[in-house]
Amino acid sequence: MKKHNFYAGPSILSEFTINNTAEAVKNFAGTGLSILEISHRSKEFSAVIEEAAALVKELLEVPEGYHVLFLGGGASLQFCMVPYNLLNTKAAYLDTGTWANKAIKEARLFGDVEVVASSKDANYTFIPKDYTIPTDADYFHITTNNTIYGTEIRKELDSPIPMVADMSSDIFSRPVDVSKYDIIYGGAQKNLAPAGVTLVIVKESAMGHVNRAIPTMLDYRTHISKGSMFNTPPVLPIYSALQTLKWYKQMGGVRKLEELDKAKAAALYDAIDGSKMFVGTAVPEDRSIMNVCFVMKPEYKELEKEFIDFASTKGIVGIKGHRSVGGFRASIYNAMPMESVKVLIDAMKEFENNH
Ligand SMILES: *Cc1c(COP(=O)(O)O)cnc(C)c1O
User: Taking a C-beta distance cutoff of 8 angstroms, is the pair 115, 95 a contact?
Assistant: First the structure.
């Protein structure tokens, strides 16, 4: 049976990415060797990492003065690397969920952290909008897409100071004004590649302004100066990332991807809003187009488990909600086709009719 993969991360990748990665595992770039066993300093792999960085720059229109890095450690290591390299006295953070909180916790190890606003009391069902960003902070950190709660900041914020963004789960789903950011980062396993690599876009002139020694591996300047090759980078995930980036370009770039993502999300939210059984958890104006969170209304609550089983008979996997929200979460990242979203919508309708 065809599977419809709604996992939140690691998550669906395009067939193009999977097939080309599988091919390279057997024979990489005609070398007669597997991508798993080739030197990261070979000319064939150097070409891969260079092309991947160039495609990131092209797709996101990254301006001069920025570097594209492929690092290990996940987005979670960036929670620490960002303040290590940028926080001198004070940083401002917007608390929009679990991941934002983890970033705040790390930043507190390095200096004052002003949490400008939080929607924690409402279980993160919305993105706070009324707050003032302190102009004496070194940077303002946001999480553009809250993977667990299904809320998203899709409009570029107005900030008087440089921003830093965790875009792990919505990068490449819209154009970004990179010039507003000192650092943009994202774990690859949501919209780019298998787990193991973290994409980091860093502004070179923002480095070198903190009064502390930075361990070599945690200093962005190390990786900038070595083109992400200071040590062995995650070779296979970078190869897969290149395939996804090529596919994004073939698909028409981030504007086109955004259009497709919005259409998928609109179809699913319409089905939820039109249902007597299901209800969305995030406020409509802040709904994510990547992670659609919904639950059953109180009178149907005991049917949640049954719906997950029913959906699995249609090939639908990965829709169980995160424990902090419950119910369901359908992650509909860039590689998710509309056909799979329709299968989910049909399953919801059929289940509702049966009860
Ligand atoms: C998944 C996720 C993370 C954690 O990424 P790791 O690569 O596992 O460290 C951080 N932030 C957001 C928004 C995420 O979705």
Answer: yes
Catalytic residue chosen out of the listed positions 99, 182, 203, 286: 99
Beta strands in 98-252 (DSSP E): 112-118, 140-143, 145-146, 151-152, 163-166, 181-187, 198-203
The Cα–Cα gap between 38 and 317 comes to 34
What atom in ligand 1 is closest to the CA of residue 187? Answer: 7
* Active-site residue flag, 166: yes
In the chain, the domains with their CATH numbers are 15-251 (3.40.640.10), 253-354 (3.90.1150.10)
In one-letter notation, the amino acid at residue 293 is: C
State the amino acid at position 292 in one-letter form.
V
For residue 152, the cross-strand partners are 145
Please compute the mean of the pLDDT values over residues 163-186 and round it to a whole number: 98
Q: What is the b/e burial string over 189-202, where b = at least 16 CB atoms within 10 angstroms of the residue's CB?
A: bbbbbbebbbbbbb
Specify the residue for token string 């991508």.
Answer: 35
CA distance 328 to 161: 37
- Annotated catalytic residue within 95, 170, 182, 190: 190
Task: Tell me the angle at which helices 253-273 and 338-354 cross, rounded to the nearest 10 degrees.
Answer: 0
State how far the alpha carbon of 143 is from the alpha carbons of 164, 173, 188, 281, in Å: 9, 14, 15, 18
Count CB neighbours of 137 within 10 A: 24
The band of 317, judged by pLDDT with boundaries at 50, 70 and 90, is very high
Token couple for 155: 């409009």
Q: Taking all residues of the chain, what is their mean pLDDT, rounded to a whole number?
A: 98
Whether the CB-CB separation of 332 and 9 falls below 8 Å is answered with no
What is the pLDDT confidence band of residue 76, given thresholds at 50, 70 and 90? very high
pTM of the full structure: 0.98
**Angstrom distances, CA of residue 37 to CA of 16, 34, 179:** 22, 5, 38
